[in-house]
Design goal:
Length: about 375
C-alpha cells in the first residue's frame, strides 16, 4: 500500500484512535496502529480490547488531500509511528509499505523506515447492528458524560460502580453513576427512541475518552447496542466500548423525596467559596469543610480548618434559605465536582439531616439533573 496525505488531517485522525491504544496490554499487536487503505478511504484503527476507535479519512474530500497509489493494510508500532509523524518537516507525508511489511515514511528530505506487522493478525472489530439505533445531539451527550462520570468509582473492588448505568425506556434516557459516597443522575428526553428499551452499564473510562472525541464540529451521535458492546458513530469516527456485566444497584431509593432545609445559591459563587475553604481543608488529614445554616438569622457560613495551618470562615451569599437550622460537614472536592457539572446557573441544595445525604439540583431544570452527596461524620 502507498498513499500521500496532508499531515494535519492525518494527525487529527491519529490523535482520535490513539486514545484507545495502550502499552499495557496482554495482546502485543494492540500496541500497534492499524491502517486500511481502500480505493476511496484510509481507515485508522486503535484498540485496547475494551475500547476500539476507528477513524475514516475520505479520499473524495479535497480538504484531506489523500492520494492513493496502491491499496492494502498494515499495522505499525503506534508510539514510534506517532512520534515520527508529528515531527516530520513538511505539510504532506507519504507512507509506502514494502516487502516484509517494512513501512517507509517520507516528508521532504526526511525518511524513516519502521517494521510493521501483518494486519490480518489484528483482532476484528465487533459487528453491531444498526437496528433500533438512537440519535443524540453531540453537545448534549458530551454534557451528559461530563455530568455523570465525575461520580463513577475508581475502586476496582466493586467493578460495576466503575461504569455509568444507562436505561432507555419510553422515550427517555436515564444515566446514573455512584461511588457510594456521591451520585449523579441525568435524564434526557429521546423522542427518537420510540419503543426501544435498553439497560446497560458503560465503563466510565470509555465515556471519558468518548467525550474527548466529541468536538464542536460534530452535530449528532448515533448509538447502537449489541449484547456486550456499544457503538457510537460520530462523524467519520466509530467508537466501540465493551459493556460491564452485572446488576447495577437500585439507586432510585437513595434519592430523598422530601427535605427539612433548602437553600438556593448562585453556583459559580458557591464554587469559588468552597474552593477557598478547601485551601486549608486539603492540608488536614480528613479534608472536610463545615456548613452552618441559621434560618432564624438568615445566615450561611462555611468553615475550613487545618490544625497545622489555621482556619477559614466565610459568610456565604445566597438567594433563599428555608426550613430548619442545620450544621453539616462534607468533602469539598465532591461539592466542587458537582458544581462544575451544573455550570453557570442557580442551584437548590436540599438537606434532611446532618448525617443524611443531601441533593443539588439546578433551579431551572430540577426534573433532568440531580446530584447527591453523603456528608462526613466529624464526631
Amino acid at each position: 500500500m502507498k498513499f500521500t496525505i496532508t499531515r494535519a488531517t492525518f494527525i487529527k485522525s491519529l490523535n482520535d484512535v490513539s486514545r484507545a491504544i495502550t502499552s499495557k496490554t496482554t495482546i502485543p499487536i494492540l500496541t500497534n496502529l492499524k491502517m486500511d487503505l481502500t480505493d476511496n478511504a484510509l481507515i485508522l484503527t486503535g484498540s485496547d480490547a475494551d475500547i476500539s476507535i476507528e477513524s475514516k479519512i475520505d479520499a473524495t474530500s479535497e480538504q484531506n488531500d489523500l492520494q492513493i497509489a496502491s491499496t492494502g493494510s498494515i499495522t505499525v508500532p503506534a508510539r514510534f509511528f506517532t512520534e515520527i509523524v508529528k515531527r516530520l518537516p513538511e505539510k504532506t507525508m507519504t507512507v509506502d509499505v514494502q516487502d516484509n511489511f517494512q513501512t517507509v515514511i517520507t516528508s521532504g528530505s526526511s525518511e524513516f523506515k519502521i517494521n510493521g506487522l501483518d494486519a490480518n493478525n489484528y483482532p476484528r472489530l465487533p459487528e453491531v447492528s444498526s437496528e433500533n439505533a438512537l440519535t443524540v445531539p453531540a453537545d448534549v451527550l458530551r454534557q451528559l458524560i461530563a455530568q455523570t462520570v465525575i461520580a463513577v468509582s475508581t475502586q476496582e473492588s466493586r467493578p460495576i460502580l466503575t461504569g455509568v448505568h444507562i436505561q432507555i425506556e419510553k422515550g427517555k434516557m436515564i444515566a446514573v453513576a455512584t461511588d457510594s459516597h456521591r451520585l449523579a443522575q441525568r435524564t434526557l428526553e429521546l423522542p427518537s427512541a420510540g419503543d426501544a428499551s435498553y439497560d446497560v452499564i458503560i465503563p466510565g473510562k470509555s465515556l471519558n475518552e468518548l467525550g474527548r472525541t466529541l468536538t464542536d464540529d460534530i452535530d449528532n451521535v448515533e448509538i447502537r447496542f449489541a449484547s456486550n458492546q456499544v457503538l457510537f458513530i460520530a462523524g467519520n469516527t466509530l467508537f466501540y466500548s465493551r459493556l460491564l456485566e452485572g446488576n447495577y444497584p437500585d439507586t432510585s431509593r437513595l434519592i430523598p423525596t422530601s427535605s427539612t432545609t433548602t437553600i438556593e445559591f448562585d453556583a459559580p459563587t458557591l464554587l469559588s467559596a468552597i474552593g477557598r475553604a478547601s485551601l486549608l481543608s486539603h492540608e488536614s488529614s480528613n479534608n472536610v469543610v463545615r456548613l452552618n445554616l441559621d434560618t432564624a438569622s438568615q445566615t450561611a457560613t462555611i468553615y475550613g480548618n487545618s490544625p497545622d495551618v489555621g482556619n477559614v470562615e466565610e459568610a456565604l451569599q445566597f438567594q433563599k434559605l428555608e426550613g430548619d437550622a442545620l450544621e453539616i460537614s462534607f468533602n469539598p472536592d465532591y461539592m466542587k465536582d458537582a458544581l462544575q457539572g451544573v455550570g453557570a446557573t442557580s442551584i437548590e441544595v436540599a438537606f434532611t439531616a446532618p448525617l443524611r445525604p443531601f441533593t443539588l439540583v439546578p433551579t431551572e431544570d430540577k426534573e433532568h439533573f440531580i446530584q447527591l452527596i453523603t456528608p462526613v461524620r466529624t464526631f
